[in-house]
Design a protein that fits this description.
The protein has two domains: about 30-105, Alpha-Beta Plaits (2-Layer Sandwich); about 120-415, Aminopeptidase, CATH 3.40.630. Helices cover about 40% and strands about 15% of the residues. The protein has helices at about 5-20, 40-50, 75-85, 95-100, 120-135, 180-195, 200-205, 220-225, 275-290, 320-340, 345-350, 360-365, 390-415, and strands at about 30-35, 55, 65-70, 90-95, 140-145, 155-160, 170-175, 210-215, 295-300, 305-310, 345, 370-375. InterPro entries: CARBOXYPEPT_ZN_2, M14A-like_propep, M14A_act_pep, Peptidase_M14.
Length: about 425
C-alpha cells in the first residue's frame, strides 16, 4: 500500500469511526453487473473481499446472477475498465444514490410519532416500546435483550395474550444491518397489528402464541445510519482502522463461508464468534428462552426472498421440506395484496454460502422448527433506500405471510 493510499484509507476510516459530518452520496451510482463466465464471478468475489472502496449491495452468486455495486464518482473510470472487459452485462441501476436518500422520507413529519408513514429513529422506536407497556399492561412487558458497544440498550417487548403458550414462542428480530430501515419498520408495524387488529386470522395467531420483538438488533449502527451515514451497515466496534464488524456471526460454523476476514470489508464478521457486545448479550438472552422457541423470524432487506437454513450447506437438513412447502404457501399469501413476488429456498441455493447467521445459530442450537429469514422489498430499484410510502404495504404483505406460516405449521403439528 503506497503512502497516499494509506493516508486515504486512514482519512476515510477516521471519518467513519469518529466523524460527525453527515456523509453524502452525490453522484454515487449503483451498477448492476451480471457475470457471464466463471472467471468473471471469481473476479467479482476477489473484488468484494479485497477492496473496501466498492460497496456490494448484493452478494456474488454465480454466472448469470446480477450483482448490485455502489460506486463512488472518483472510481467510475476504474470501474468502467471492469465493465468494459466484456465479462459482464452491465447497466446503471441507480444513477444518483443521494437523490434517493433525499426523497426517501416525507418532507414534513411529526417528531416522535410512530405511524409508519416515515422511518423512525432509535429513540422514537424505544420510546414507543416503553409506551406499549403503559398502554397494554396486561399483555406487554419491556425486555432488555442486550447491550451494545456504545452502551445502548437493545430493547424489545414480550407480548402475551393468553396463558399456556410458553412453548409456542415466536421471536422476531430486525435491523441487524443498520441501513436496512424497512426491517424494523415492518417489525414494529406487525407488533402493533397483533395488539390492535380485529382481523380473525391475525387474532388467531396473536392469541395462540407468546411473542418477543426486538426491532433494532444493532442500535449503534442504526443510530449512525440516521445521524451520519445513511448507507452504514455494520456495528460501531473499531478494529484496526476501518474495521467495524457486521454483527451477523453468532457462532454456528463461524467463518466457514459468506463473511469476510478482511477488516475493511462490509461483510467482515469480526475476529471470532460472538465478538461483538450486541451479538454476545442478545445471544445470551435468546439462550434463556431458546428451548421454548417455536419460531424465529429475522427481517432483512433487500431482494424479496424467504430464506431457509442452513447458510453453510445446500443440503436439505432437519425439517427443510416442511419449511419449504409452507414457505411457498406463505409467499403466495404475501403476493395477494400487491403482487409482490418472493422466492423461497435454502440460503446457499438462492444466494451463497453465508455461515454464522442468527437463524442458523437458533436452528442448530435449539432445533427451533419454524425458522425463516426474510429479505424484504425491493429487488433493486431502490435497494436499501426504500421510500417510506412502501412501509405499510411491505408490512401488510409480510404479516399475511406470517399468518400463513404459523397456521400451516399448526396443521402439520396436528397431523
Amino acid at each position: 500500500m503506497n503512502i497516499f493510499l494509506a493516508f486515504f484509507v486512514l482519512l476515510v476510516s477516521s471519518q467513519h469511526i469518529l466523524g460527525d459530518e453527515k456523509v453524502r452520496y452525490d453522484d454515487f451510482k449503483v451498477y448492476r453487473l451480471t457475470p457471464k463466465t466463471v472467471q468473471a464471478v471469481e473476479a467479482l468475489r476477489n473484488l468484494e473481499d479485497s477492496n473496501s472502496e466498492y460497496d456490494f449491495w448484493t452478494a456474488v452468486r454465480g454466472v448469470g446472477y446480477p450483482v448490485d455495486i455502489m460506486v463512488a464518482p472518483h472510481l467510475k473510470y476504474r470501474f468502467n475498465d471492469i465493465i468494459n472487459s466484456g465479462e459482464f452485462d452491465a447497466e446503471v441501476y441507480i444513477s444518483d444514490v443521494q437523490e434517493l436518500i433525499d426523497n426517501e422520507r416525507p418532507k414534513t413529519r411529526l417528531a416522535g410519532i410512530v405511524d409508519w408513514t416515515d422511518y423512525n429513529t432509535l429513540d422514537e422506536i424505544n420510546d414507543w416500546l416503553r409506551s406499549l407497556v403503559d398502554e397494554y399492561p396486561d399483555n406487554v412487558s419491556l425486555v432488555k435483550a442486550g447491550t451494545s458497544y456504545e452502551n445502548r440498550e437493545i430493547l424489545g417487548v414480550k407480548v402475551v395474550f393468553n396463558p399456556g403458550n410458553e412453548d409456542r414462542t415466536v421471536f422476531i428480530e430486525s435491523n441487524i444491518h443498520a441501513r436496512e430501515w424497512i426491517s424494523s419498520a415492518v417489525t414494529t408495524w406487525i407488533l402493533n397489528q397483533l395488539l390492535t387488529s380485529k382481523d380473525t386470522n391475525v387474532r388467531q395467531i396473536a392469541d395462540t402464541h407468546d411473542w418477543y420483538f426486538v426491532p433494532v438488533f444493532n442500535p449503534d449502527g442504526f443510530v449512525y445510519s440516521h445521524t451520519t451515514d445513511r448507507m452504514w451497515r455494520k456495528t460501531r466496534v473499531p478494529y484496526f482502522l476501518c474495521a467495524v464488524p457486521t454483527p451477523t456471526e453468532l457462532g454456528l460454523l463461524f467463518h466457514t463461508g459468506g463473511s469476510s476476514s478482511n477488516p475493511c470489508s462490509e461483510t467482515y464478521g469480526g475476529p471470532s464468534a460472538f465478538s461483538e457486545p450486541s451479538t454476545k448479550t442478545l445471544s445470551e438472552f435468546i439462550t434463556t428462552i431458546g428451548p421454548k422457541l417455536g419460531a424465529y423470524i429475522a427481517f432483512h432487506s433487500y431482494s424479496q426472498l424467504m430464506l431457509l437454513p442452513y447458510g453453510y450447506s445446500s443440503s436439505h437438513l432437519d425439517n427443510y421440506q416442511d419449511l419449504y412447502n409452507v414457505g411457498v404457501k406463505a409467499a403466495s399469501s404475501l403476493s395477494q395484496k400487491y403482487g409482490t413476488k418472493f422466492q423461497v429456498g435454502n440460503i446457499v441455493e438462492l444466494l451463497y454460502v453465508a455461515s454464522g447467521g442468527s437463524m442458523d445459530w437458533v436452528k442448530g442450537t435449539f432445533k427451533t422448527p419454524i425458522t425463516y429469514t426474510y429479505e424484504l422489498r425491493d429487488t433493486g430499484r431502490y435497494g436499501f433506500i426504500l421510500p417510506a410510502d412502501q412501509i405499510i404495504p411491505s408490512a401488510e404483505e409480510t404479516l399475511d405471510s406470517l399468518v400463513t406460516i404459523l397456521q400451516e405449521f399448526d396443521k402439520i403439528k396436528k397431523n
